[in-house]
Prior knowledge:
This protein is an alpha+beta fold.
Amino acid sequence: MAGLEGIEQPRGHGRAVAAARWSPAVEDERALKALELFGNPAEQDVPLPSRPESAATARRLAQVVILRHWGLTPKLTEDAVLLVSELVGNAVRHTGARVFGLRMRRLRGRIRVEVRDPSRGLPCLMPVRETDISGRGLFLVDKIADRWGVDLLPRGKTTWFEMRTGDR
């Protein structure tokens, strides 16, 4: 369930109790807490541990930066947060890194989100069928982002996407 990471659920009550605890205000509070704990990816490369729960942290950081700090639309925020989650998921699953970096930039008329890891293995856009239950990450990035790519570094790579913001 998106947005419920880290909520302890009482035994025997399952999802209904957890769902009742979620609210936009709680999620906003978690996003601000993530910013306080990890740093602002709009100001510097934010290192995150290569663990599945880092996807939730990265989503929260993207949410607070795009929506609150940059004042962009909820739709753009929602799409960018989804793509951040996909790039982070790929970094966690496929690179073997202990840590990866998240960086966000607001450029003229667009935003750019970068995930940096120490692997030089290139991500691969695979054909996706309706019945596939995994492997859709780069497919979604390719469909939703205006541009995306990979920059090889002396030690690793940066996988990035850009989205138009409508402002000039």
